[in-house]
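New to this. Please check this record:
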Amino acid sequence: MTDKQTFAFFYRKSMPEAESWVKKIRIWIRKKRPDFKEVGINPDFLFVLGGDGTVLEAAHRYRKEPVIVSLNLGNVGFLSSVRSSKNFLSVLEKMFKGAYSEEKRMLLSIRAYRKNKKVFETESLNEAAIQNPLGMVELEVNIEDHPFQYVRGTGVLVSTATGSTAFNLSAHGPVVMPEMECMIITELLDHNIPTPSFVVTGDKVVRLKVLNFRKHGLLSLTKTKKPVDVVLSGDSNSVFPLEPGDMVEIRKAERYVKFAVFEKNYFLKSVQEKFSFG
């Protein structure tokens, strides 16, 4: 039986199906485990109801490393602990019996520097991206102080293994087992000869230097209304405008995100299901 005693829910209030399942699970827990208490902060378990985007929000919001039990109500579900709602309650039964494992996922620490001064910082479970959505940007990719690659295109993506099935996959990067601690560097629409993605170990430091881009100012950020061209984003949530000469440093974060896993080879089965392997 699990020694963890507290739980919380995380879901988008605009999703009626999630609201309905929260009510069902609350009633079920009160009946099955009245000693298992719902709390507002620092829960042992965090039940996330929704799609992969909701899981990313939860990972950013809860920083004390609760065990995330992701109950999939979305379309993709690569970050889900349980893919089908028909299995939600049976999996919770397993959880109470301690019939699960905890899988630690690496996060990225992302920092932007301008004239050697830190101007932006965030974390990311899936990826960091530098993009010029409506034009080109010239970037230098530096690994462990070694100038490794020059990109003249839409941008560069640095993904975790967890994020290998997200934006990285859409950019034709490789799928990596999510428990691996690594970073996947993938160019985005490079106008030079296309090059493959490159995987580096998680103890490395990747730096992306913004060399040049033409300023058109066709986009603007919602908060500031300031015209922008090139942006840095973490998990497509935190967004920061970049200037020529800026340097972005990406390394493994100190904390992890923990997921509950209830089924052996769960990720392999998810990949088989999504891509119709076998």
Summary: The chain is about 20% helix and 40% strand. The chain has a mean pLDDT of 92. The first strand starts at residue 6 and ends at 11. Helices lie at 16-32, 52-61, 88-96, 167-170, 266-275.
